[in-house]
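Holo prediction. Input below; ligand is NAP.
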Amino acid sequence: VTSRTIRWGILGTGRAAHDFARGLRFVPGAEAVAVASRSHERAEAFARRLRIPRAYPCYEDLIADGDVEVVYIATPPHRHMQDSLSCLEAGLAILCEKPFAINAAEAREIVLVAQKARVFCMEAMWMRFMPLIRRAREVARTGQIGDVRLISADFGMATPFDASGRLYSRELGGGALLERGVYGVSLAQWLLGKPEKIWAQARIGSTAVDEQSTAILSYRSGAQAIVTASLRERSSNEALIVGTRGRVRIHEFFFRPERLTVDVFADSPEPVPYDDKSLRGRAITALKENRVLRGARLRAALLVPGLSAVKSQEIIEPISGNGYNYEADEVARCLRADLLESPDMPWAETIAVLETMDAIRAQYAVHYPADVTT
Ligand SMILES: NC(=O)c1ccc[n+]([C@@H]2O[C@H](COP(=O)([O-])OP(=O)(O)OC[C@H]3O[C@@H](n4cnc5c(N)ncnc54)[C@H](OP(=O)(O)O)[C@@H]3O)[C@@H](O)[C@H]2O)c1
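Structure of the complex:
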């Protein structure tokens, strides 16, 4: 029973649906058995291209298939709640794309229905299951870089403007924060928890969604996070976790990384405040500022690697499969263990991420139709 094949259905035939279906090929004991589209032709073409046995011309037909155990919801965000509820109410488990819903109220409703129906439900936040993201988190959580004080996460791509396209459309749940910033908010939530205060600004475009969003989150611990997202420009696409003794750089693209740089400042002593007028403080400052000593130390560090003030480690690990396989593996693991939620992407965290995003966009007044009805 524990190794039974997990039979997947897929709602939607866009980019994510396509990539996920390909990713399933790398998951042992998983099979895509059905796909549904709003159009008969698109369903057929998708099924043919990805060798999926059954193609349905409407979503309801897939939900009534009878042989599907879990549905991957790859529709635009404005219909995530509606599609999730249809599946859950029919007893089908779901893996729903990010953003899990338009706002926290919708997310709470989905979770409530999953709880009532006792059906598995998870946000498809694939980032959390990437091996190097997990490694970065491990480094941060085990204190190797000291206490985490700052996280910055930046995701921006130059997406050609299309007023009715998914990314720029308010009706479909577009916007930089919901589409891209969600990764940074989720990373910060994972490492630092719920922020205490939020400050945000955005550049709003002609379709009334945020085309560039910047949010500063601050935490009771004194830590801060900066989350930036853009629909118009390709930015660094990196994340940085800064601790009191070191830092982890998660290279582009930080939500599906294949390279990390971990710097630990091996000799970082207790920091001496600038205004430390004690004998010790003045002595340390004088030594640090002495050009001859500094030069000698730098030369020595170059010649004798162990003497370097920074212990730097580059970690490279290519993604296996296409990256979607990791979250699908997690769903299979949870379903086989009869879990209703994943311990790594629990419901409370999905809701907390949406609460933070609600608060961010409230500050720059981006609203979606669903905000009125929920
Ligand atoms: N994890 C990731 O890396 C990743 C990557 C991309 C996207 N995503 C997420 O996945 C979701 C889908 O993104 P995508 O890039 O795959 O979008 P997409 O290419 O536009 O595909 C969305 C699909 O949803 C279906 N759909 C249903 N109602 C629709 C409507 N009113 N307007 C447009 N399409 C509608 C369409 O399929 P039919 O016409 O066949 O029904 C369409 O092909 C989003 O939430 C996005 O944020 C995640």
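The longest strand covers residues 148-156. That is the main takeaway for now.
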